[in-house]
Each structure stands twice: as structure tokens, then as C-alpha cells.
């Protein structure tokens, strides 16, 4: 019982407004088939409580997979799920860098939820799984759906598949751990400038290559300027033809 949790990039990310403490956006999410974590359900030798193994940079209770497990217990057949994980542990072979704007934690949580639905026979719809995932993280719903490319809006809960060209990207992630919460706080404090509904609709209609032709890295991603204000070392990696994914720190280029 094994599955790949693919990384993603944000080809563009523009803030469209706010909803309480959250920011609404329009963003083009694109999965990267060449970069993924591998999640495996492994039979245990002895039955015990939920077990999660992997090279993580957080405690188990802060891990997105554990959070997804806790929310799944509340939303589905608790006894059935607990019995399965008394007999199976979850192992994760981490390849997606953390704090890099590539959705590693969100992809892990979504893949875990989809695997549970399949192997425990929970018979939950994608829409239900996406709602569960949204409680774990804003990017999780995108990874629940089997879309390679999508326009993601709202605070991440609105996912619309997008027919795009077959594009390939190279990525580069410097050794800089960008704190998503801090980047958004800096944006709200010093850079808040939402685009209009008209601009949102226009961006959502563009092919990815067309959108990238219109912008440099700072223009394509509203979080790049606040990220640079907190992590000025990012500036030296900013060059023509290179773009910034999510809240960082990964840069990408079209091949």
C-alpha cells in the first residue's frame, strides 16, 4: 500500500482580498511529477496506537498527516480507521523540501487521506475529502483532486481544473526556510494590494506560459516582495526567467 505525494509550484499567485485572518487569492497550481514524497502503509509486528515514521522537522502532533488522521476520525468510521492503524504504521520517504513553497506537507496530508479512503474502504467522495483536508491546510484540497494543473482560489478551497500546455520546469531551492505565516503577515502589513475581479478572471483564463510572459518574479507572485523583506538573502537568486513559488523559498524556470 503505497502512493506518491507530488510537489507543486505556483506559476503565479495574486491576492484578491481577505477573509478574516485569511487571504483570498487566484493561483495556478501545477504538480511536478519528478519530485514527490512516498507514503507507505506498513503492517506492524505488534498492534499499538497510530505510528508515523519519517524524516520530519516537526513533532508528530504538528505533522499534517497526523492532523489529517485526527480530522478523518471525526468525519468517518472512527472504529474502522483506528483498527486499521493499530495494525499498520505510516512511513514517509521525504524528498520534497520543507518551507519551500512546494506543498510537501499539504500533498502528504492529501495523499494520506486518499490512501485511507481507498485501503480502508471509507467510500468518501472527493468533495468530502477536500473539506476534511481544508481543515488541515489551505493547499490540501488541490492535492485531493487528480488534477495536474488547476486554478485555485478563495482561501484554497476552490479548485478548478485547467487545460494547459505540456510544460516542463526546473526548480531550485536555496537553503532558506521561509515561514508561510510570517510572509503573509508581512504582506498584510506592508504590501497589501489586492487585484480586481476583472484582473482575476483575466489571469485565470491565461495559459501558464502567457501569464509568465507578462510578469517578472515579483509581479507574478504577491508573496515574493514580503518574503524578500524578511529573507533578504533571497534577492541574490532573483534573475530573469526565474520565478518564485508560493511563500518560498523555491525558484522555478520554464525549460
CATH topology of the largest domain, by name, is Ribosomal Protein S5, domain 2
Radius of gyration: 18 Å
The CATH class of the largest domain is identified as Alpha Beta
* Main pleated sheet: 6 strands, mixed
Strand % is: 25-35%
What is the helix/strand order? EEEHHEHHHEEEHHHHHEE
Q: Share of helix among residues?
A: 25-40%
Number of helices: 10
- Per CATH, the architecture of the largest domain is 2-Layer Sandwich
Q: Which stretches of 5+ consecutive residues score pLDDT under 50? A: none
**Please, what is the average pLDDT?**
94
Q: Span from first to last CA? A: 34 Å
What class do helices, strands and sheet pairing give? alpha+beta
* Global geometry: globular
Count of separate structural domains: 2
Number of strands: 9
What do you see in this structure?
- The chain is of the alpha+beta class.
- It has 2 domains: about 1-160, Ribosomal Protein S5, domain 2 (2-Layer Sandwich), CATH 3.30.230; about 170-255, GHMP kinase, C-terminal domain (Alpha-Beta Plaits), CATH 3.30.70.
- It is built from 10 helices and 9 strands.
- It has helices at about 65-75, 80-85, 105-120, 125-135, 140-145, 180-190, 195-205, 210-215, 215-220, 225-230; strands at about 1-20, 20-45, 50-55, 90-95, 150-155, 160, 170, 245, 250-255.
- Strands 1, 2, 3, 4, 5 and 6 form a 6-stranded mixed β-sheet that branches.
- A hairpin with a 3-residue loop joins strand 5 and strand 6.
- The model has no long low-confidence stretch (mean pLDDT about 95).
Amino acid at each position: 500500500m503505497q502512493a506518491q505525494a507530488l510537489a507543486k509550484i505556483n506559476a503565479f499567485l495574486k491576492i484578491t482580498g481577505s477573509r478574516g485572518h485569511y487571504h483570498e487569492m487566484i493561483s495556478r497550481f501545477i504538480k511536478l511529477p519528478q519530485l514527490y514524497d512516498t507514503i507507505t502503509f506498513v503492517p506492524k509486528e505488534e498492534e499499538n496506537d497510530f505510528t508515523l515514521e519519517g524524516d520530519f522537522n516537526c513533532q508528530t502532533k504538528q505533522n499534517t498527516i497526523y492532523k489529517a488522521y485526527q480530522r478523518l476520525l471525526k468525519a468517518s468510521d472512527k472504529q474502522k480507521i483506528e483498527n486499521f492503524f493499530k495494525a499498520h504504521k505510516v512511513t514517509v520517504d521525504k524528498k520534497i523540501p520543507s518551507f519551500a513553497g512546494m506543498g510537501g506537507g499539504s500533498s502528504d496530508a492529501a495523499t494520506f487521506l486518499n490512501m485511507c479512503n481507498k485501503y480502508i474502504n471509507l467510500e468518501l467522495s472527493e468533495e468530502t475529502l477536500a473539506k476534511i483536508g481544508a481543515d488541515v491546510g489551505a493547499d490540501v484540497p488541490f492535492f485531493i483532486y487528480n488534477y495536474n494543473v488547476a486554478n485555485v482560489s478563495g482561501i484554497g478551497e476552490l479548485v478548478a481544473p485547467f487545460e494547459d500546455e505540456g510544460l516542463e520546469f526546473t526548480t531550485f531551492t536555496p537553503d532558506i526556510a521561509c515561514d508561510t505565516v510570517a510572509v503573509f503577515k508581512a504582506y498584510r502589513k506592508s504590501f497589501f494590494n489586492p487585484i480586481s475581479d476583472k484582473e482575476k478572471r483575466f489571469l485565470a483564463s491565461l495559459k501558464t506560459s502567457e501569464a509568465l510572459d507578462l510578469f517578472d518574479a515579483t509581479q507574478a507572485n504577491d508573496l515574493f516582495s514580503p518574503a524578500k523583506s524578511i529573507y533578504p538573502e533571497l534577492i541574490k537568486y532573483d534573475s530573469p526567467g526565474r520565478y518564485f513559488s508560493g511563500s518560498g523559498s523555491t525558484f522555478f524556470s520554464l525549460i
